[in-house]
Amino acid sequence: MTDPMILSGSLNDIEALRSQLIAGSEKVQQQTISELAELQSAGLDILMEFLLQRRENPATWIDGKAYTALYNCNLPAVQEFLQTNFPQGVIPLTSEREIDYAPLQKLLASQDFQAADQMTLQKMCELAGEDAIKRKWIYFTEVESFPIADLQTINKLWLVHSEGKFGFSVQRELWLRLGKNWESLWAKIAWKNGNNWTRYPGEFIWSLDAPKAHLPLSNQLRGVRVIASLFAHPAWSADSKK
After folding, report:
1. Is 6 exposed, middle or buried (0-12, 13-18, 19+ CB in 10 A)?
2. Fold assignment, 4-85
3. Sorting pLDDT into bands at 50, 70 and 90, what band is 239?
4. Where is each GUN4-like domain found (predicted)?
């Protein structure tokens, strides 16, 4: 028979974690989500409740981390919950050109960042049109015509599923802080080591252990012009929601 004192202590611990998840700082919430995921049933119930309570508000990477913990759980009840309440994840998959971003969402939720990076380029080729789809890369001039909504969808997916570490907006903000110095940016995000470019794919870090802004690659093997066009896009203007 379970000792009532032990059971009481466990319940108190779970309630403490619930309070931390709701009212804690982002750092506390980040750690609490990991702890709740390890508790299985009781912890996962709290994570599901947490996501439901926040559903009406714009998703942050905290929502993404909670969703990812649930998404990668094999319990049927959890998968049914996600399918019923978050069939497309926590980010609206908005597209002005009817691009399907569900495959990208699923890869990022699975934390398969290498495949997600390849899918990101594929989706940008779809935005650019048939010629880009055939050649499998994009011209910087094609970026200029990308819809704001689509770039924001791609960016938000990366942001919320990487604990805020990855995304075009993260790269752009760092670039601005570095005085728009490309060489400083390449070194900071580990795309270059000294005079040597990081070799694709083996030398890139396809996990959250990577430096901030390391991903997505933004077609970096073709020089600065594509990423410069991405950074100049109006999707990141003060009048646009990131």
Report:
1. exposed
2. 1.25.40
3. very low
4. 95-234
Confidence grade of residue 7 (pLDDT, cut at 50, 70, 90):
very low
Q: Where are the alpha helices (DSSP H) in the chain?
A: 4-23, 26-38, 41-54, 61-71, 76-85, 102-109, 113-128, 130-135, 140-143, 148-160, 168-177, 182-188, 225-232
The answer to whether the CB of 180 falls within 8 A of the CB of 186 is no
Say yes or no to pLDDT of 225 above 60. Answer: yes
How far, CA to CA in Å, does 27 sit from each of 87, 99, 103, 209? Answer: 27, 34, 29, 16
The CATH H-level superfamily of 102-236 is Gun4-like (1.10.10.1770)
Q: What is the DSSP string of 36-92?
A: HHHTTHHHHHHHHHHHHHHTTSPP-HHHHHHHHHHHT---HHHHHHHHHH-TT-SS-
Spatial distance between the Cα atoms of 188 and 185, rounded to a whole number of angstroms: 5
Q: Which residue has the tokens 């689509």?
A: 150
Helix (H, G, I), strand (E, B) or coil at 180: coil
Task: Provide CATH 1.25.40.620 ranges for the chain.
Answer: 4-85
Q: What is the number of other CB atoms lying within 10 angstroms of the CB of residue 136?
A: 10
* Residue range 159-169, pLDDT digits in tens: 999 999 999 99
Q: 104 with 166: CB under 8 angstroms?
A: no
